[in-house]
Amino acid sequence: xxxxxxxxxxxxxxxxxxxxxxxxxxxxxxxxxxxxxxxxxxxxxxxxxxxxxxxxxxxxxxxxxxxxxxxxxxxxxxxxxxxxxxxxxxxxxxxxxxxxxxxxxxxxxxxxxxxxxxxxxxxxxxxxxxxxxxxxxxxxxxxxxxxxxxxxxxxxxx
Length: 158
Prior knowledge:
mainly alpha; about 45% helix; rod-shaped; single chain
């Protein structure tokens, strides 16, 4: 059994619930809603509003919040990393991988609209520059080494 406060301005408390505080002067008392013990009260929807309609089979709202950004193309990252690694670790292989994956990622980005176009362009350009340096180095090596081989091979000791 609960003890009820019979002072003016208080409302009698239901069995098992907390007493309702008296209303502030000049304001109407809040409406009383009946809810099962331990359950959250359910409030009626305001007039003129309907519950949001979600697409069939979904239970969460779509289109709310911040839109997610398109993902970065993985081949663009591979192109840049391998082209930069070619400058330090594997000169020919890294540049070749950078050029091939760079061109592949540029075509994928154009088709799918992913992010990473700048990465792909940078990887492709650095890869081509690396291959150009390799070709120039080989030509320079052959131009300097070939005369030395020809001169040393034509000398005969008789």
